[in-house]
């Protein structure tokens, strides 16, 4: 079974969101793409509203992972993390994308369209789906501590 992926892009990130969407549509690892971001000509929407909406879809279990894009990635990451049970972070290099999943079991990769080039963004988005968190890893205790803090730890 493939991933169900939420894509978010605000007015500063919809270009990369659409580029990544096109790439993922041809990826055998992806079963469903849920696009809750803006497109050219859409009425402006605040990035916190877009990011929390996308994160809520993941938190409910209606999607597995998300790629959220704004100008820097920071705003959508901070907003998504306000949703109980969500772990999101900015990653603009391959090692950080790897650790996002393997060390932190994060569901959301956030990136900034104003920070990195399009080829790197596509590469990192693809790499995000190369990794699966190992619940037997030494990182599980850290993830459990994060989840316990927001009350999302499942025993």
TrEMBL record:
Reaction equations catalysed: D-erythrulose 4-phosphate = D-erythrose 4-phosphate
Pathway assigned in UniProt: Carbohydrate metabolism; erythritol degradation; Carbohydrate metabolism; D-threitol degradation
PANTHER family according to UniProt: RIBOSE 5-PHOSPHATE ISOMERASE, RIBOSE 5-PHOSPHATE ISOMERASE-RELATED
Group of enzyme by EC: isomerase
Keywords, comma-separated and alphabetical: Isomerase
Protein name as it appears in the record: D-erythrulose 4-phosphate isomerase
One GO MF term attached to the UniProt entry: intramolecular oxidoreductase activity, interconverting aldoses and ketoses
InterPro entries documented for this protein: Rib-5-P_Isoase_Actino, RpiB_LacA_LacB, RpiB_LacA_LacB_sf, SPI_LacAB/RpiB
